[in-house]
Amino acid sequence: MTADATPALVEDGRTAAGPRVRRGSAYPRYLAGKVAGALVSLLAVLVTSFFLFRLIPGDPVKTMTGGRQVSAEQLAAYREEFGLDLPLWRQFTDYCAKALTGDLGTSYQFRTPVVDKITEALPNTLLLTVTAFVLYTVLGIFLGTRSAWRRGGTGDRVNTGLALTLYSIPSFWLGLLLIIVLSVGIGPVPGMFPTGGMESGGKEGFAYVLDVAHHLVLPVVTLVAVEYGQTLLVTRSALLDEMGSDYLTTARAKGLRDDLVRRRHAVPNALLPTVTLIFINLGRTVAGVILVETVFSWPGLGGLFYQALSVPDLPLVQGLFFVFAAAVIVMNTLADLVYPLLDPRVAR
Predict the structure, then answer these.
(1) Distance CA 264, CA 251 (A)
(2) Is the dihedral of CA 291, 297, 303, 308 positive or negative?
(3) Are the C-beta atoms of residues 210 and 235 closer than 8 Å to each other?
(4) Contact 54, 41 (CB under 8 A)
(5) How far is CA 340 from CA 31, 55, 331, 336, in A?
(6) What is the pLDDT of residues 161-188, one digit of tens each?
(7) CA nearest 117: which of 276, 313, 280, 267?
(8) What whole-number distance in Å separates Cα of residue 209 and Cα of residue 199?
(9) In this predicted structure, what is the pLDDT of residue 62?
(10) According to the model, what pLDDT value does residue 127 have?
(11) DSSP type of residue 199
(12) In Å, how far are 17, 38, 111, 279, 321 from 328, measured between CA atoms?
C-alpha cells in the first residue's frame, strides 16, 4: 500500500482510528443540537399552556365560590388575589417570569403552590406508570422475539392479533370493563378488586403494602394490556429484518444452537429500535395516564389534572400540562442521545 492511499482510507473511515475521531467530534455537536431543540420545545410548551387553557369557558373565580351568593366586591377581591384583574399580557409575563424560577403559581382551589401539589401526587403516578412500564416492556419484548422467530405459526398469529386488538382499545373503556367484571362482579365472576382509590385506609406496615398492591392491580393491567402491543410489534418487525442477515447464517454454520443464535446475535441487534421506543413510551405513559387514573380514582397527576380542569384551576392545569409535555420531551431527547451510543452512524 502506498503512502498516497493512506489518507484516502482515513477519510473513508476504513481504519480503526478514522471513525473514532469523527465520532468524538460529531457527537458533541449532535448532543448540543438535541438539547437545544428540547429547550426550545419546553419554552413553546410553557407559552402554549398559558394561552390554551384560557380558551376554556367559565369564570374560575365564580366556580371557586361553589354557586354561593357572593358580592361583586368579594369577586373583585378574589380576582385581585390571583392576578386575574391584570391585562392578559401582564398575566403572561408574570407567569413566564415565575415559571423560569420554578414557581408555577398558586392553585385556585387548594390555595397552595402548584409545585407542592405536583410533588405530592407525583410518587403515586410514578408507582403506577413505572410498574406498568416495566411489565409491558418485558412482555412486549419477550412475545415479540418469540413471534418473529416462529413467524407464521399459531403463536405468532395469536400474539399479533391480540396485540393489535388490545392496542386499538381505549384505555378508559377497558378500565371500566375491568371494574364491571373484576371489581363489581358479573354472573359467576365475583368482585375481587377495589373499584378505585389507592388504599383502603387504617393499615400500616406490610399490610399497607399489600393493600396498595391490591388497588394497583387493575390500573396496571389496563395500562399493560393497552401498551404492550406496540413494543411487541416493533420488536417483531425489527427481528424479522435481521433474520436474513449473513452473520446469523454464519452463526448457524458454526453449529450454534438456534436458541443461542437468537439470544446472543439476533435479538441484541434487533433491539435498537425498541430501545428508542422504550424511552418514548416511558414519557408517553406518564403523560397518558390521565384517563386511567381518573377511571380508577388513583390519586396521581392524572386525577389531579382532571380535578383541576373541571374548575378550571388555571395555574394547576398549566403546571400539570407542562409536566406531562416535559416528560415526553425529556424522554424523546434521552432516546436521541442514547441511540448514537448504540449505533454511531446516527451522529455522523
Answers:
(1) 10
(2) positive
(3) no
(4) no
(5) 10, 41, 15, 7
(6) 999 999 888 888 999 999 988 888 777 7
(7) 313
(8) 9
(9) 67
(10) 92
(11) -
(12) 37, 10, 28, 9, 11
Tens digit of each residue's pLDDT (9 = 90 or more) over 45-101? 888 888 877 777 666 776 666 666 766 777 777 777 777 777 888 888 888 888 888
Residue 59: the pLDDT is 66
In whole angstroms, how far apart are CA 96 and each of 31, 35, 110, 111?
Answer: 27, 20, 22, 20
Rounded distance between C-alpha atoms, residue 97 and residue 220, angstroms: 38
Q: Which three cell numbers stand for residue 52?
A: 390554551
| CA-based nearest residue to 105, from 344, 284, 321, 348 | 321
Dihedral of alpha carbons 40, 42, 48, 50, sign = negative
**Virtual torsion, Cα 17, 18, 23, 24, nearest 10 deg:** 50
From the list 327, 162, 292, the residue with the least C-alpha distance to 216 is: 292
Distance CA 124, CA 298 (A): 8
Res 219: pLDDT: 93
> Closest Cα partner for 198 from 295, 135, 124, 302?
124
What is the per-residue DSSP string for 231-298?
HHHHHHHHHHHHTT-HHHHHHHHTT--HHHHIIIIIHHHHHHHHHHHHHHHHHHHHHT-HHHHHHTT-
Quote the CA–CA distance of 295 and 288 in Å, as a whole number. 13
Residue 321, CA distances (Å) to 123, 146, 259, 299, 301 in order: 17, 38, 46, 17, 10
Query: Cα(159)–Cα(154) distance, rounded to whole angstroms?
Result: 9
The pLDDT value recorded for residue 259 is 67
Give the pLDDT confidence score for residue 10 in this predicted structure: 40
The span from the first CA to the last CA of the chain, in angstroms, equals 28
Q: Which residue positions in the chain have pLDDT lower than 50?
A: 1-23
- For residue 156, give the C-alpha cell: 405468532
Return the exposure string of 104-126: e unless at least 16 CB atoms fall within 10 Å of the residue's CB, then b. bbbbbbbeebbbebbeebeebbe
